[in-house]
Amino acid sequence: MKINGVIQKKLAIMDERVSWLETRFASESFEAFRSSWELQAAAERGLQIAIEVVIDVAERLLALHGRGPVASAAEAIRKCVELGVLDSEEPFTAMIGFRNFIVHQYDAIDSRITFDILQHHLGAFRHFRDCIDRWKPEASGRRSESEREE
After folding, report:
1. Which of 43, 115, 135, 144 has the smallest CB count inside 10 Å?
2. DSSP3 helix / strand / coil % (the chain, rounded to 5)
3. CATH no. for residue 100?
4. What is the value of pTM for the model shown?
Protein backbone atom coordinates (compact mmCIF):
# COMPACT_ATOMS: atom_id res chain seq x y z
CA MET A 1 0.00 0.00 0.00
CA LYS A 2 1.17 3.51 -0.69
CA ILE A 3 1.05 5.21 2.69
CA ASN A 4 1.22 8.85 3.60
CA GLY A 5 4.20 10.57 5.19
CA VAL A 6 2.76 10.64 8.70
CA ILE A 7 2.25 6.87 8.70
CA GLN A 8 5.68 6.31 7.16
CA LYS A 9 7.29 8.44 9.87
CA LYS A 10 5.49 6.56 12.63
CA LEU A 11 6.47 3.18 11.17
CA ALA A 12 10.09 4.36 10.94
CA ILE A 13 9.98 5.22 14.65
CA MET A 14 8.62 1.77 15.42
CA ASP A 15 11.30 0.12 13.28
CA GLU A 16 14.00 2.13 15.02
CA ARG A 17 12.80 1.22 18.51
CA VAL A 18 12.37 -2.47 17.69
CA SER A 19 15.79 -2.65 16.07
CA TRP A 20 17.34 -1.04 19.15
CA LEU A 21 15.51 -3.44 21.46
CA GLU A 22 16.68 -6.43 19.41
CA THR A 23 20.28 -5.24 19.39
CA ARG A 24 20.40 -4.16 23.03
CA PHE A 25 18.73 -7.20 24.55
CA ALA A 26 19.71 -10.03 22.20
CA SER A 27 22.51 -11.32 24.40
CA GLU A 28 21.24 -10.04 27.75
CA SER A 29 20.74 -12.63 30.44
CA PHE A 30 17.51 -12.65 32.39
CA GLU A 31 19.44 -12.31 35.65
CA ALA A 32 21.16 -9.14 34.45
CA PHE A 33 17.85 -7.79 33.14
CA ARG A 34 15.95 -8.63 36.32
CA SER A 35 18.55 -7.02 38.57
CA SER A 36 18.70 -3.72 36.64
CA TRP A 37 15.82 -1.30 36.87
CA GLU A 38 17.56 0.82 34.21
CA LEU A 39 17.43 -2.04 31.68
CA GLN A 40 13.83 -2.77 32.58
CA ALA A 41 12.85 0.88 32.23
CA ALA A 42 14.59 1.17 28.85
CA ALA A 43 12.89 -1.97 27.58
CA GLU A 44 9.48 -0.93 28.85
CA ARG A 45 9.75 2.53 27.28
CA GLY A 46 10.96 1.15 23.94
CA LEU A 47 8.10 -1.35 23.88
CA GLN A 48 5.59 1.31 24.89
CA ILE A 49 6.63 3.58 22.03
CA ALA A 50 6.54 0.76 19.49
CA ILE A 51 3.06 -0.27 20.68
CA GLU A 52 1.86 3.35 20.58
CA VAL A 53 2.89 3.41 16.92
CA VAL A 54 0.81 0.29 16.24
CA ILE A 55 -2.19 2.00 17.84
CA ASP A 56 -1.61 5.35 16.09
CA VAL A 57 -1.18 3.76 12.66
CA ALA A 58 -4.27 1.58 13.09
CA GLU A 59 -6.37 4.59 14.11
CA ARG A 60 -4.98 6.74 11.32
CA LEU A 61 -5.70 4.10 8.66
CA LEU A 62 -9.26 3.77 9.91
CA ALA A 63 -9.74 7.54 9.80
CA LEU A 64 -8.32 7.74 6.27
CA HIS A 65 -10.85 5.13 5.17
CA GLY A 66 -13.86 6.59 6.95
CA ARG A 67 -13.96 3.90 9.65
CA GLY A 68 -13.12 5.99 12.72
CA PRO A 69 -13.14 7.25 15.36
CA VAL A 70 -12.92 4.27 17.68
CA ALA A 71 -13.54 3.99 21.39
CA SER A 72 -10.42 1.96 22.21
CA ALA A 73 -7.15 0.73 20.82
CA ALA A 74 -8.50 -2.83 20.80
CA GLU A 75 -11.44 -1.65 18.71
CA ALA A 76 -9.00 -0.05 16.25
CA ILE A 77 -7.26 -3.40 15.84
CA ARG A 78 -10.59 -5.21 15.44
CA LYS A 79 -11.72 -2.74 12.76
CA CYS A 80 -8.37 -3.05 10.96
CA VAL A 81 -8.97 -6.81 10.77
CA GLU A 82 -12.48 -6.16 9.39
CA LEU A 83 -11.04 -3.72 6.84
CA GLY A 84 -8.48 -6.30 5.75
CA VAL A 85 -5.43 -4.38 6.93
CA LEU A 86 -4.48 -6.98 9.55
CA ASP A 87 -4.92 -10.73 9.29
CA SER A 88 -5.89 -11.24 12.95
CA GLU A 89 -6.36 -9.37 16.19
CA GLU A 90 -3.52 -11.25 17.87
CA PRO A 91 -0.78 -10.50 18.72
CA PHE A 92 -1.81 -6.86 18.49
CA THR A 93 -4.47 -6.86 21.21
CA ALA A 94 -1.96 -8.59 23.50
CA MET A 95 0.49 -5.76 22.74
CA ILE A 96 -2.16 -3.24 23.75
CA GLY A 97 -2.78 -5.12 26.97
CA PHE A 98 0.91 -5.03 27.78
CA ARG A 99 1.06 -1.30 26.97
CA ASN A 100 -1.90 -0.67 29.28
CA PHE A 101 -0.15 -2.62 32.01
CA ILE A 102 3.03 -0.55 31.59
CA VAL A 103 1.08 2.70 31.75
CA HIS A 104 -1.44 1.89 34.49
CA GLN A 105 0.10 -0.95 36.53
CA TYR A 106 3.72 0.23 36.34
CA ASP A 107 4.38 -0.83 39.92
CA ALA A 108 3.57 -4.48 39.18
CA ILE A 109 5.30 -5.21 35.85
CA ASP A 110 6.67 -8.73 35.78
CA SER A 111 10.23 -8.59 34.41
CA ARG A 112 9.84 -12.17 33.12
CA ILE A 113 7.03 -11.07 30.80
CA THR A 114 8.98 -8.07 29.53
CA PHE A 115 12.07 -10.21 28.96
CA ASP A 116 10.02 -12.87 27.16
CA ILE A 117 8.64 -10.22 24.80
CA LEU A 118 12.16 -8.96 24.11
CA GLN A 119 13.50 -12.43 23.42
CA HIS A 120 10.59 -14.00 21.52
CA HIS A 121 7.94 -11.55 20.33
CA LEU A 122 9.53 -8.50 18.70
CA GLY A 123 8.80 -10.03 15.31
CA ALA A 124 5.14 -9.10 15.85
CA PHE A 125 6.06 -5.49 15.10
CA ARG A 126 7.57 -6.50 11.76
CA HIS A 127 4.45 -8.53 11.08
CA PHE A 128 2.38 -5.39 11.67
CA ARG A 129 4.53 -3.47 9.20
CA ASP A 130 4.29 -6.30 6.67
CA CYS A 131 0.49 -6.25 6.94
CA ILE A 132 0.45 -2.50 6.30
CA ASP A 133 2.85 -2.83 3.36
CA ARG A 134 0.82 -5.66 1.75
CA TRP A 135 -2.61 -4.15 2.24
CA LYS A 136 -4.52 -3.22 -0.90
CA PRO A 137 -7.16 -0.63 0.08
CA GLU A 138 -9.10 -1.12 -3.13
CA ALA A 139 -9.74 -4.72 -2.07
CA SER A 140 -11.54 -3.47 1.03
CA GLY A 141 -14.09 -1.61 -1.06
CA ARG A 142 -13.76 1.96 0.19
CA ARG A 143 -11.04 4.35 -0.87
CA SER A 144 -10.12 7.50 0.97
CA GLU A 145 -10.11 10.99 -0.52
CA SER A 146 -6.30 11.03 -0.68
CA GLU A 147 -6.24 7.72 -2.58
CA ARG A 148 -8.85 8.91 -5.09
CA GLU A 149 -6.73 11.99 -5.79
CA GLU A 150 -3.59 9.95 -6.59
Report:
1. 144
2. 75, 0, 25
3. 1.20.120.580
4. 0.87
Alpha-carbon distance 54 to 23, whole Å? 20
Residues 64 and 42: their CA atoms lie apart, in Å, by 33
Q: Is residue 119 part of a domain?
A: yes
130 lies in a domain? Answer: yes
CA nearest to 129, candidates 70, 57, 67: 57
What's the pLDDT score for residue 146?
Answer: 41
Q: Dihedral (C-alpha) 49, 65, 121, 20: value to the nearest 10 degrees?
A: -40
> Residue 12 falls within a domain, yes or no?
yes
32 in a structural domain:
yes
For residue 31, give every residue at least 6 positions away whose Cβ sits within 8 Å of its Cβ, in sequence order, or none. none
Identity of the residue numbered 27: S
The DSSP annotation for 82-97 comes to HHTSSS-STTHHHHHH
Domain housing 70: 5-143
